[in-house]
Structures are given as C-alpha cells and as structure tokens.
Amino acid sequence: MERHRWLKVAIFACLVAFSVGREFRLNHKHSGDAISFNHTLAEILVQYASAAYISDLTELFTWTCSRCDDLTQGFEVIELVVDVQHCLQSYVGVAKSLNAIVIAFRGTQENSIQNWIEDLYWKQLDQMYPGMPDAMVHHGFYFAYHNTTIRPAIVSAVERTRKFYGNLDIMVTGHSMGGAMAAFCGLDLAVSHNYQNVQVITFGQPRIGNAVFASYYSNIVPNTFRVTNGNDIVPHLPPFYSYFPRKTYRHFPREVWLYDVGFGSFIYQVEKVCDGSGEDPSCSRSVSGKSVSDHLVYYGVELSSPAWRSCRFVMDPPLAASYGMTDPNGNRVFSRDPEIPLIRLKEPSSLGGKSW
C-alpha cells in the first residue's frame, strides 16, 4: 500500500514537471519578436476583469471595492462608463505597476446567464467588419462596442491618459461578452488609432467572427491570448462547424486552456498554450464544454456580479455630481483629469449612495 501511494506521488510529480517546465512562444509575424504567455499578467488582468462587475460605482471609481486590491492595488480609474440603455459597463485607468493603461469590460449582466448562453447557439454572422473584405462578425458584440456610449468614452480616456503619462502600453481585458468587446476594442485601437503597443487577454470569450476576420485580427493584434477554463461552455459558442470553414464562426489565436490533471486528492491546474489555429482540437475543443460554473471562475477569481440586479448601479450623489456626465438616454460617464488627484472619500462603502 505504501509503495502504491508513493508511485502515485511520483506520477503526479512528473505531470506537474511536464506541464510547467516548458516555455511556450508565438512568433510575431511582423517583427520576428517572440510573444510569450505571461501567467502573472493573466492573474493580474483577471482581477481587473472581475472588478468590472462591481455595481457600487463609488467604490469602483475610487478603487476601494472588495475586488480592488491584492494584485491591482494602486490602480487609478480615469474613466468609468455605464451604458444603462444597453446594460454595458467598462472602465479605463492607469496601473503604474504594469506601466500600462488598463481597459476592462464587464461581461453579461442579466438575471439569467443561462438564457444568454442558449441564445448564443443561434447567433448568425450578420455584420461585415468595415475595411476588411469578407470579414464577418457577430452584430451584437460589434454593436456593443462600436455603437454605444462605450467606444467614444474609452477612446477619449486613452488619449487623455497618454497625453499626460506618455506612451504607455495598453492592456485590454474582459470576461464573457466583455471579452468579445475587449477584442473589438483592441482591434479598433490598433486600426483606427494606430496604437502599436496593444495587448489583449480575455477570459471565457465567445467566438466573434469568421475565419477571414480571425486572420485579420491575429495579424493586427498578435499580442492576444484567450484564456479558457475546463469545460466552460461560452468559448464553444456560437458553434464552430469545421465542414463549413468559410461560413462558420472561428476563434482567433491564441488560446490558453486551463484544465485539471491528477487523480483523487492530487489535482493540479495546468495551462496549455495551444496552437496558432485558434481552434486547436487538443485544447478546450477536446471537451464537451457544457459547464456554466467553469465560466464563472478563472484562476480562483469570481467573474460575475456580487448581486444579480440586472443593470442597476449605486453612486454617491456628491461624487456623481463632481465627476459624472449623463447623456439624453440616461447613460453615465464618470471622468477625471489625470493631472488632478481624485477626491478620496472617507469610508465610501458607508455612504449608501443613490441607486439608478
């Protein structure tokens, strides 16, 4: 029995050594430089993606929320956008520890995420991406970034921040639908605004376009990683049909698949950096992909709203009056000048605030 137990330990040790003892690289087509997946950066950005779900905007804007600590301490929010009309939320700020501007998008904020997932099964490629012949994308995801309050507020915030801080890197992240918006944002910043140092890391992102779009995207924003987790259902949607390669949805590269190895009480999570096809059959496509619970937690970080309250949010009235702007549709943008320190409120969580 003792010998059998030590044999299990030895096998598990070999699995761990094999899974973490390699460095994975992706060749950059434009410069020849190598792009490596950065595990530490992914663990940081997933916390920013999680914070995007906070509905207490006083705590989020002042970066004092329960998810606004640990690896993201010291972050300064420059712009917080709440598109009430379309139930969208994102923010832009400066992470001095990363020497970067971070842009984060909230994922699906609905009373029933299951309904949203079921709806994705039937989504069609119904939008031509401008300036990219034959590139088709998901209209809803495209619209959410390009045709709402979100895009102009983000672009303005990035321009103001770079004007003050200089040529910082730009890191874009999001979870679920927020990952889809993050991808469109990264592409937009590179194409329409000619930013060269754009990096995108998403979590549990659905497919957003066809093979032509995936090819364009991977050439324009090569520093992109899509992290998927176990049997997470959303990266399998909308469906990919290999027998209709030109007409079906297709992921762009590069996927990083998180999955568990081991047996019994010996379980270890492995990161597998997949091939450059975007649809590596040995990664998340190797499993059925029917889990909602795997969609809601990445790297041990919760990626959902603390309270499923649809699109409502809370904001302290004085802070809203000082930094907020409201358009005719009721959408809110909370902005601050990077040159002027934010007014720090005492115990913002005790202020209660006004609910919208």
Automatic annotation (TrEMBL):
Gene that this sequence comes from: LOC111451496
UniProt name for this protein: Lipase-like
Example GO biological process: lipid metabolic process
InterPro entries xref list: AB_hydrolase_fold (IPR029058), Fungal_lipase-type (IPR002921), Sec_MonoDiacylglyc_Lipase (IPR051218)
One matching Pfam family: Lipase_3
CDD domains xref list: Lipase_3
Keyword Transcription regulation appears in the UniProt entry: no
Stretches assigned to the Fungal lipase-type domain: 102-240
Signal sequence segment: 1-21
GO MF entry, a single one: hydrolase activity
Keyword Protein biosynthesis carried by entry: no
Keywords in alphabetical order: Hydrolase, Signal
Superkingdom: Eukaryota
